[in-house]
Design goal:
The complex is a heterotrimer of chains A (about 325), B (about 400) and C (about 290). Chain A is about 80% helix and about 0% strand. Chain A is an all-alpha fold and about 325 residues long. In chain A, helix 6 runs parallel beside helix 9, helix 9 crosses helix 11 and helix 11 packs across helix 12. The longest helix of chain A is centred in the last third of the chain and has 39 residues. In chain B, about 25% of the residues lie in helices and about 20% in strands. In chain B, the strands form two sheets. Chain B has an eight-stranded mixed sheet, sandwiched between helices. In chain B, strands 2-1-4-5 form a four-stranded antiparallel sheet, with helices on one face. Chain C has about 290 residues and is mainly alpha-helical. Chain C has a single domain, classed as MetI-like (MetI-like fold). In chain C, helix 1 packs across helix 3, helix 3 packs parallel to helix 7 and helix 7 runs antiparallel to helix 9. Classes of the chains: A mainly alpha (about 325), B alpha/beta (about 400), C mainly alpha (about 290). Chains in contact: A-B, A-C, B-C. The interface between A and C is large, with 49 and 44 residues.
């Protein structure tokens, strides 16, 4: 039985690794066929015009032109696997160090938003699903409609306007107070700077999870076994606790881990608005500036997060669902 | 009639209430019977010849009812295969159920699926409502239990133990006094173990003991309590579903199509379990499309066609086709393989194409102009029929 | 031998029911969107007209949405921007939906290898967060309108494909399709009479629900700077420009365009959801 599990897990792992490799190839290919001249983008037309040929060639080498793409990819891949993610062309530091800092900042934001939106979304989804058609359901549906129609960045802008500019309660950007030395930054400072971006991310994540949870809850409430439970005289609370909760937990797991991708995307926008130095903002700069190593590394890391999340969801499913646990591996 | 009687002796055993006999699932040859002291009800007078039978004989069921209803019919005490009935448990008069649906475009229409249904069940007897698929009989079960879908409206009168069965009342009674035995395993929560599920989450020792007793009666091993629905075989599921009904000593059991697609032996055993329930004093409403199987265990049969009850007969009447009243019932009888396996042209009309007057009219060889009027449900001999030509 | 039957007519009354409510909202939504779209198309000139005497005005009667730092009327600019966004979103989403249909049906009907490849590609695309993928594509194609449209068109087909693939696979296994095959009906007949009526509602609803998604992503990517220049004031551009002036207190630059965007997207969602409730057979009778 354990062996069966191990084999299945192994297969999934191999699949994930293959997919990540494919992602890296695809990303690399996309970046290579970009007609954007990184020199122009980063150095500028005017500066280029005043350079000598050798200087331009040196720059070209620096930015990685001049070699056939396959060679470039292979050398990059070799380095990457060994842990050397290359040097960021924009930040002029090793990619690993750039990412290390930004990843921590982003994680802070994303995990908070992930947990908050997951929990709140789950609860209001369940409440809406069980009270279908009543006022509370209509309110929740309306709220979710408005929220999911709101672009992430605009909500972030609004929050910034209200709390940062107008009320001046929270800082308007960055992750640490300006002008303060690194050692002087306290956890509270970090927290303060992260509140608005995290709030923006959370509010948006809620609607997606809530709506899907509500759908699943409605399916459950219309199922045969809930009908039978009603026929046996079980009260609403009993029906929820015995049947509703358990059965909605499984899809909720999938939803929660599937939301990782959305949170990532949202963080790109939110960080841009708040100038929060996280992974998303780095991705935007890398994209605008054709910083290949940095962009590749960020892509791969985000792909790892997404795939990893799916894998974890799969494993959890296997543990929680007795049909899989006892009926053998599906 | 005696062979039928023998059959009954052979196939049914009368149990006392719980705590009495806990045999394995076998048939009691030679009929060792005990009385159920709850309802003073005797199944076979012949074997008993017991004084307790007089107790029932002297109390006519109609004394328990309110008002005089023509639809009531009582046991035939002169018939030596009579069944002594207890009080009237359930009485349904003129039940109609219709659905709100959207027809073309934006119009909503009412679709009357059940138009006029009349059934009475007394304690200790088993009444089978027989009809072909699509006649709407499953709705009857849901209607009684109060779990009709949101776009259904129900009319008519329902009385439980003489009092009207209002939605408030059914909410209180269902699950303990009035229970339903559902069709399939899809009515069981797939993520809950059987034990807690049947016990509805109760954890007290008394319920646990009761469950073990019930399991033993239906020869379900104790390990079943810890299993999930998907792990049970078909027969086990069926017995477990019946067990759900038994937990609280119900007075009325509604069995909705309990034998779909089951192997013959399993189906027969299932029916015997229901017979046991009736013999223990509950009233059993059996809804099925299998006339043959129903005849083996039921006391009375109500025939259902295209939304209306068209005949009510005792099970004995089905021994000879002449005793049946409605042409459709006779046709049903003749369709049984042993009785000729003949069929009548045509199909049951769809709700939207209902003919005026008698629903069976277009297919009936006795059709006259009179049949296109509304036909009342009348008493005939010892049953009821909705036909102008029945004798 | 069936006698002529006289059927009993059903109740038939003009009642205000749920379906009618849905239809009304659907009409409102479509009207709003069409008006915005068409009106915006004629605003091209007005959106670019600068008037330095009217710089940075807060909302007033003459300029209901205020003016920006170049004196351009925000209302007209917003309208134009919305129109552009709607057009881009709708066209890119339609392309995506068609791709989804083709790929979904192919995956379900052309055998295991094709199915495997398509599923794998779907997993691949869904592995990268959507916005990141859009950034990559924009970088690959070069910035500008082209990049945005191609990016949006090439990334929105995944979920719809999965849906269609799932539906077609289920259909093929369903009893009535198998029976139709056994009865000798041709593939075309089965596809036309049995599969399309089942798939079409889901497909149309999926298509309509793609529009708001596409518009949101399009505005996001232009907001980040990958898209259009400020000559073509798509909503994202308007909002990103407004960010620079937020601190100075010109709140109307961000508020009104944003609200209009929210309304637009919300109306698309309303249209899609109501359409689903009207034509999807499983919820048709509520």
């Amino acid at each position: 039985m354990v062996k069966q599990y191990a084999i299945a897990f192994g297969k999934k792992l191999v699949r994930v690794i293959l997919l990540v490799i494919a992602v890296s190839i695809a990303a690399f290919a996309l970046m290579t066929c970009s007609p954007v001249d990184p020199l122009q983008a980063n150095v500028g037309q005017a500066a280029l015009g005043s350079m000598s040929q050798e200087q331009i060639e040196k720059l070209q080498e620096y930015w990685g032109q001049g070699q056939p793409p396959v060679t470039r990819y292979l050398s990059w891949a070799k380095d990457f696997i060994r842990g050397d993610m290359g040097v960021s062309l924009l930040y002029r530091q090793s990619v690993s160090s750039v990412i290390a800092v930004k990843l921590v900042n982003s994680l802070f934001l994303m995990i908070t938003a992930w947990l908050l939106s997951g929990l709140i979304g789950f609860f209001i989804g369940v409440i809406a699903g069980m009270n279908r058609g009543k006022l509370i359901d209509k309110c929740i549906k309306g709220y979710c409609l408005i929220i999911s129609s709101t672009p992430t960045f605009w909500l972030a802008l609004l929050l910034l306007m209200i709390f940062g500019v107008w009320l001046k309660v929270l800082p308007i950007g960055l992750s640490v107070p300006i002008g303060v030395e690194a050692s002087g930054v306290t956890f509270l400072d970090r927290l303060q700077h992260a509140v608005l971006p995290a709030a923006a991310l959370s509010i948006l994540g809620v609607s997606n999870i809530a709506l899907h949870t509500r759908e699943k809850m409605i399916d459950i409430c219309e199922s045969d076994y809930v009908l039978f439970a009603k026929a046996r005289g079980e009260s609403s609370w009993q029906i929820f606790w015995h049947h509703g909760f358990r059965n909605v937990l499984l899809p909720a797991i999938t939803l929660q881990f599937g939301a990782i991708s959305e949170i990532f995307g949202g963080s790109v926008l939110v960080e841009q608005v708040f100038s929060y130095p996280g992974l998303g903002q780095a991705a935007v700069s890398a994209g605008l500036g054709s910083d290949m190593p940095l962009l590749m590394a960020i892509t791969i890391i985000s792909a790892l997060f997404v795939f990893g999340g799916n894998l974890i969801a799969n494993i959890l499913y296997g543990i929680v669902d007795p049909r899989i646990r006892r009926g053998g591996v599906r | 009639m005696s062979d039928k009687q023998q059959e009954h002796t052979h196939m049914h055993k009368v149990n006392s209430t719980e705590g009495g006999r806990e045999d394995a699932l076998g048939y009691d040859e030679g009929g060792v019977h005990e009385h159920s002291h709850h309802h003073g009800y005797a199944r076979n007078e012949h074997i008993h010849g017991h004084a307790a039978a007089d107790q029932v004989e002297n109390t006519y069921p109609h004394e328990h009812e309110h008002g005089g209803y023509d639809h009531q019919h009582h046991g035939h005490y002169h018939n030596h295969h009579s069944h002594k009935r207890g009080e009237t448990i359930l009485e349904i008069k003129n039940m109609n159920i219709s659905f709100t649906q959207y027809s073309k475009g934006f119009r909503q229409i009412q679709l009357p699926v059940i138009k006029d249904l009349n059934v009475t069940i007394c304690a200790g007897e088993m009444v089978a409502v027989v009809g072909s698929s699509g006649s709407g009989k499953s709705l009857l079960a849901h209607g009684v239990m109060g779990i009709l879908p949101y776009n259904a409206t129900m009319g008519g009168e329902m009385y439980y133990q003489g009092e009207p069965l209002t939605p408030k009342r059914i909410k209180k009674l269902r699950g303990n006094e009035i229970v339903m035995v559902p069709q399939s395993t899809s009515y069981l929560d797939p993520l809950m173990k059987m034990g807690p599920q049947i016990k509805k989450g109760r954890k007290d020792e008394k319920t646990a003991k009761k469950l073990r007793t019930i399991f033993k009666r239906y020869s379900l091993d104790e390990s079943v309590e810890q299993q999930y629905p998907f792990e049970l075989s078909g027969g086990m599921t069926r017995r477990a579903l019946i067990a759900t009904a038994m937990l609280d000593d119900p007075k009325l059991v509604v069995a909705d199509e309990p034998t779909p697609g089951l192997h013959m032996n399993v189906a027969k055993r299932t029916m015997d379990h229901f017979r046991e329930l009736a013999d223990m004093g509950a009233g059993v409403l059996l809804i099925t499309h299998d006339l043959e199987l129903a005849l083996e265990v039921a006391d009375r049969v109500v025939v259902f066609y295209a939304g209306t009850t068209i005949e009510e007969a005792n099970a004995e009447d089905f021994a000879h086709v002449e005793n049946l009243r409605h042409p459709y019932t006779k046709a049903l009888w003749q369709a049984i393989p042993q009785n000729g396996f003949t069929y009548v042209d045509g199909v049951q009309p769809y709700v939207k194409d209902m003919p005026r007057g008698c629903p069976f009219g277009p297919r009936c060889s006795y059709y006259t102009e009179q049949c296109s009027e509304s036909i009342p449900y009348q008493r005939l001999r010892n049953g009821y029929v909705r036909c102008c030509h029945a004798k | 031998m069936m006698r002529r039957t006289m059927t009993v007519p059903m109740e038939n009354s003009f009642v205000w029911n749920r379906r009618k409510t849905l239809l009304v909202w659907l009409i409102i939504a479509v009207t709003f969107l069409t008006v915005v779209c068409i009106a915006g198309m004629y605003c091209g000139e007005a959106a670019r007209a600068t008037d330095f005497s009217q710089k940075n005005l807060a909302p007033c009667l003459a300029h209901p949405f205020g003016t920006d730092w170049l004196g351009r009327d925000m209302f007209v600019r917003t309208l134009r921007g919305l129109s552009i966004s709607i057009l881009i979103g709708v066209s890119a989403a339609t392309f995506s939906a068609l791709m989804a249909f083709l790929l979904g049906v192919s995956a379900a009907t052309l055998g295991k290898t094709v199915d495997g490849i398509i599923t794998w590609v779907i997993d691949l695309i869904m592995g990268v967060p959507h916005l990141l993928l859009l950034i990559l594509i924009c970088v690959a194609v070069g910035k500008g309108l082209k990049g945005v449209i191609i990016g949006v068109a090439l990334t929105h087909w995944t979920s719809l494909t999965r849906l269609i693939r799932g539906e077609v696979m289920q259909l093929r296994e369903s009893q009535y399709i198998k029976i139709a095959k056994k009865l000798g009906k041709s593939q075309w007949h089965i596809a036309l009479k049995h599969m399309i009526p089942h798939l079409l509602p889901q497909f149309i609803v999926g298509l309509v629900l793609l529009f708001p998604h596409a518009i949101l992503h399009e505005s996001s990517i232009t907001f980040l700077g990958f898209g259009l220049s400020s000559e073509q004031p798509a909503i994202g551009v308007i909002l990103s420009e407004s960010m620079k002036y937020l601190v100075t207190g010109n709140w109307w630059l961000a508020l009104f365009p944003g609200i209009m965007l929210v309304l637009t997207v919300a109306f698309f969602y309303v249209a899609g959801e109501n359409l689903r409730k009207l034509i999807d057979p499983s919820s048709a009778h509520e």
